[in-house]
Amino acid sequence: MAEVRTIRGFVYPKKRTAGADEFDDDEVIKAKKSGLPTAWDNSPDAALASARHEFGEHGGVNMSIEASATFTVMEPETMRRMFTGELGPDRDFFIYSRHFNPTVLSLGRQMAALEGTEAAYCTSSGMSAISCSLLQLCSSGDHVVAATSLYGGTHALLGEFLPRACNITTTFVNITDHEAVNNAIVEGKTKVLYFESVANPTLTVANIPELSRIAHDKGVTVVVDNTFAPMVLSPIRLGADLVIHSVSKFISGAADIIAGAVCGHASLVNAMMGLHQGTLMLLGPTMNPKVAFELSERLPHLGLRMKEHCSRAMAYATRMKKMGFKVIYPGLEDHPQHELMKSIGNMEYGYGGLLCIDMETEERANKLMYLLQNYSQFGFMAVSLGYYETLMSCSGSSTSSELSDEEKVLAGISPGLVRMSVGYIGTLEQKWSQLEKALIRMQDKDCDNLFNKN
C-alpha cells in the first residue's frame, strides 16, 4: 500500500503502484460523499468546506501545481492498463494533462462541491464548457429549446453556428412562458432545454424546478448556465441535470482569468471525458494547471464576496429606484420573479450581484456610463462581471450585439439597458456618493457638454 498522509480527516495519497488497493468508487471523477448532516446539503459554503483538501508535495497547506503535460509509470504494463481504463485518476494514475491533470482535477472537486453535483470538469473558457456540453448531448438532426434571453455568444452558437456546422437546430422561447416551453419541445427530437438561471442581461429568473419537470416529463436534459448566480442559486438541487459556469466571472473575481466548468452527474461528465466520443477529451478545452491552482485559492472566499456583491447591489437598486430610475433587480419587490427568487434561492447570499438600469435609449445609456466612469469615478465601462470594481456596459450594443433587433425585442433587451456588475471595493456610502453624483448630474439638461465630441 502506498504512503498516505491523513490530516484532520483529509486524505492526501502519494503516487500509487498498479498493484495498490483500489478506492471504493471506480468513477474516475465522482465526488466522494462527505457524510455531512442533511441540513448542510443546501449550503454551498458548507459543501466547499467539506470538499477533499489537497496538500502540497512537502506538506504545504496549499496543493502543489502539477505542471507536467505527461506522466511517467514504473512498469510498461501499467500504461496499457491506463489506456484501457483499468487504472485512472481515482487511483492517482495520470496519462496526459489534456485528459486529467491532478491540479485541475482538484479544482473540479471543489466546483462539484460548490454546485452540489457528483462531478465536475474545468475547461479553458465558459464557451468551451457550453459548446462541449451541447455537442455531447446532441447529434446531427437533434433539436434544442433555449431561452430568448441569453448571452450573445451562446445565442450565436445555438442560432447560427450549430445549425450550419452540425445540423443541430434551436427554438428560442420566453423561458417564463412554461406553456410555450412545453409546446416547443418535440418529443424524440429535442434533447436539451437550455437557459440561464438569471438571464443575461435582463435578469429574468428561471423557474428551475418547474422547467426541469416539464423537460424531464419528455425525456429532455436540462442544462443551466449559472454564471450570474454562483452560491445564490443551486440548479442541480432544483432539478437541473448539468450546470455550466464561466469561471472567469464571479468565481475568479479578479477579471484576470478565462475559464469554464461543467458540473453534473458523474455518468454524464465521465462520458464527456470518454476517449472515443467524449467532447471534453476530443475537442481539448484544456485548463492550465497554474490557472486551476489560482482559482482553487479563490473559491474558499467566494461566499464572502458574493454576499458583499449582493448586498451592495440591493442597496444601490433600492436607492436608485427611490430617485425615480427604472431599475431591474430580483431583490426589488416589483421584479416579476422576486417571489420566485425568494423561494428557490439560497437567501443567505442575497439576490445576485448584477442590476440593470433602463435608460430607454442607447444615447442616454452611454451618457450615464460616461458620467459614472469619467465624472464620478464610480466604475468602469467594460464587459464581463464579478470584478471587485463595478463594471458596466450597454448590453444591446455589446454583449448582446449578436442578436438582431427583433431578437432583442423578443428577449426584452431595451436599447438603453445598462447592465451593471456591482463591485465591493471601498465603503458602501463612499461608492453610493459617487453613483448618486453621476445620477444627479445625469438629470441636468446641460450634461451633454461633458462628452459631446462633435
From TrEMBL:
<dbReference type="Pfam" id="PF01053">
    <property type="entry name" value="Cys_Met_Meta_PP"/>
</dbReference>
<dbReference type="GO" id="GO:0006555">
    <property type="term" value="P:methionine metabolic process"/>
</dbReference>
<dbReference type="GO" id="GO:0051289">
    <property type="term" value="P:protein homotetramerization"/>
</dbReference>
<dbReference type="GO" id="GO:0009970">
    <property type="term" value="P:cellular response to sulfate starvation"/>
</dbReference>
<dbReference type="InterPro" id="IPR015424">
    <property type="entry name" value="PyrdxlP-dep_Trfase"/>
</dbReference>
<comment type="similarity">
    <text>Belongs to the trans-sulfuration enzymes family.</text>
</comment>
<dbReference type="InterPro" id="IPR000277">
    <property type="entry name" value="Cys/Met-Metab_PyrdxlP-dep_enz"/>
</dbReference>
<keyword id="KW-0663">Pyridoxal phosphate</keyword>
<feature type="modified residue" description="N6-(pyridoxal phosphate)lysine">
    <location>
        <position position="249"/>
    </location>
</feature>
<dbReference type="GO" id="GO:0019346">
    <property type="term" value="P:transsulfuration"/>
</dbReference>
<dbReference type="GO" id="GO:0030170">
    <property type="term" value="F:pyridoxal phosphate binding"/>
</dbReference>
<protein>
    <submittedName>
        <fullName>Cys/Met metabolism, pyridoxal phosphate-dependent enzyme</fullName>
    </submittedName>
</protein>
<dbReference type="InterPro" id="IPR015422">
    <property type="entry name" value="PyrdxlP-dep_Trfase_small"/>
</dbReference>
<dbReference type="GO" id="GO:0005829">
    <property type="term" value="C:cytosol"/>
</dbReference>
<dbReference type="GO" id="GO:0018826">
    <property type="term" value="F:methionine gamma-lyase activity"/>
</dbReference>
<dbReference type="InterPro" id="IPR015421">
    <property type="entry name" value="PyrdxlP-dep_Trfase_major"/>
</dbReference>
<dbReference type="GO" id="GO:0042631">
    <property type="term" value="P:cellular response to water deprivation"/>
</dbReference>
